[in-house]
Amino acid sequence: MNTRPLALTATAALCASLTLAAPATASGGGDDRVVRTGDCSGTADWKLKVKTDDDKLEVEGEVDSNKSGQQWTWKIKDNGSVVAKGSATTAGRSGSFSVARRIADQSGTDRVVFKASYAGQKCRGVINFG
């Protein structure tokens, strides 16, 4: 019995599975990326993502309340300083919004905080990045 074709097939399958399981890398050539999720004080959920992008940090905050039309206020802080703020309205069937900003990559560890609030409900996510 010739086992060579079987061995080649098994090797090819193993290589394909390893390629599919390889982690994705962030844009800008770096592979630094951190994602955190959590519950808000009410029924909404939050998500915070931070990754490197061409010597800056790309920060994305998201709130999912499952209710369209809610106007939330939001803020992004880096090491205690407000770097972006505004308001956003939940939309779509998911009743969510997201904001993305590119901010300076401070020396050392960046403490990135995303806060959002609506009608007394508060969301807060924190990532120590670097």
In short:
The chain is mostly beta strands. 14% of the residues lie in helices and 53% in strands.
**How many domain modules?**
1
How many strands, what sense, and barrel or not for the largest sheet?
Answer: 4 strands, antiparallel
Question: What's the gyration radius in Å?
Answer: 20 Å
State the shape.
elongated
SS field, number of helical segments: 1
How much of the polypeptide forms β-strand, as a percent range? Answer: over 45%
Helical residues, percent: 10-25%
CATH class: Mainly Beta
> Mean pLDDT score, rounded?
83
The counted number of beta strands is 8
Q: Unreliable stretches, pLDDT < 50, 5 or more residues?
A: 3-30
- Taken in chain order, the helices and strands follow as HEEEEEEEE
**CATH-defined topology:** Immunoglobulin-like
Q: What is the assigned CATH homologous superfamily? A: Macroglobulin (MG2) domain
Strand order of the largest sheet: 1-2-3-6
The CATH architecture designation is Sandwich
User: End-to-end distance, in Å?
Assistant: 56 Å
Helix/strand structural class: mainly beta
Topology overview:
Blueprint: H1 4-21, E1 33-39, E2 45-53, E3 56-64, E4 71-78, E5 81-89, E6 96-104, E7 110-118, E8 121-129
Antiparallel strand pairs: 1-2, 2-3, 3-6, 4-5, 4-7, 7-8
Structure description:
The protein is mainly beta and 130 residues long. The chain has a single domain, classed as Macroglobulin (MG2) domain (Immunoglobulin-like), CATH 2.60.40.1930. The chain has one helix spanning 4-21, and strands at 33-39, 45-53, 56-64, 71-78, 81-89, 96-104, 110-118, 121-129. The strands form 2 sheets. Strands 1-2-3-6 form a 4-stranded antiparallel β-sheet, with no helix packed on it. A 4-stranded antiparallel β-sheet has the order 5-4-7-8, with no helix packed on it. A hairpin with a 2-residue loop joins strand 2 (45-53) and strand 3 (56-64). The N and C termini lie far apart (56 Å).
